[in-house]
Structures are given as structure tokens and as C-alpha cells.
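Need a sequence for this fold. Nothing fancy.
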């Protein structure tokens, strides 16, 4: 990439960042590309439409990414799992 093109690209990305936008690259099945483009267009478009779409997506996908390890373990269904340990110290080792 030439120096001029690199500067232009950097300037473009800085303008996007100032507008509060982030560049995202995803890999989806070919038949879903237009759907993802439409969703992205809606999210960066009219505020009312974007808010409704966010609510729908969060309701469908949940907010699981915000949970830490403790919360995930606390929410795990551990009822049928035996978590007791034997009091043995393991194998005998000669040192």
C-alpha cells in the first residue's frame, strides 16, 4: 500500500472513530451476508430503529458475554454431578 493510500485510510478510520463507529469484520454463511449488512446499516442508522434492533438482538442472544467465571459457575446446572473428592493423598512416592 502506498504512503498516500495508508494516510487516507488512517484518516478515514479516525473520522469513523470520532463518530463513534468501529470497523468489524465477520465471517458468515454466504446466504446471510445481506442480512448482516442490513442489520449493520440499521444499527448505525436511525436511532429509533437501532434501539429496537438492539433490544431484539439482546433478548435473543442474551448478555452472556458480560458474565465472569464466578457467575457462569454459579449458573451452571451442577445438581447431578458428584463433586466430592476422596481424602487420599494419591500415590506413594519415594524421595
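Here you go.
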Amino acid at each position: 500500500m502506498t504512503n498516500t493510500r495508508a494516510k487516507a485510510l488512517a484518516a478515514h478510520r479516525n473520522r469513523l472513530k470520532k463518530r463513534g463507529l468501529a470497523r468489524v469484520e465477520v465471517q458468515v454463511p454466504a446466504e446471510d451476508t445481506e442480512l448482516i449488512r442490513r442489520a449493520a446499516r440499521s444499527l448505525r442508522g436511525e436511532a429509533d430503529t437501532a434501539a429496537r434492533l438492539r433490544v431484539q438482538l439482546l433478548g435473543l442472544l442474551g448478555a452472556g458475554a458480560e458474565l465472569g467465571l464466578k457467575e457462569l459457575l454459579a449458573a451452571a446446572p451442577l445438581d447431578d454431578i458428584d463433586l466430592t473428592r476422596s481424602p487420599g493423598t494419591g500415590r506413594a512416592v519415594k524421595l
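For context: Residues 3-55 form one domain.
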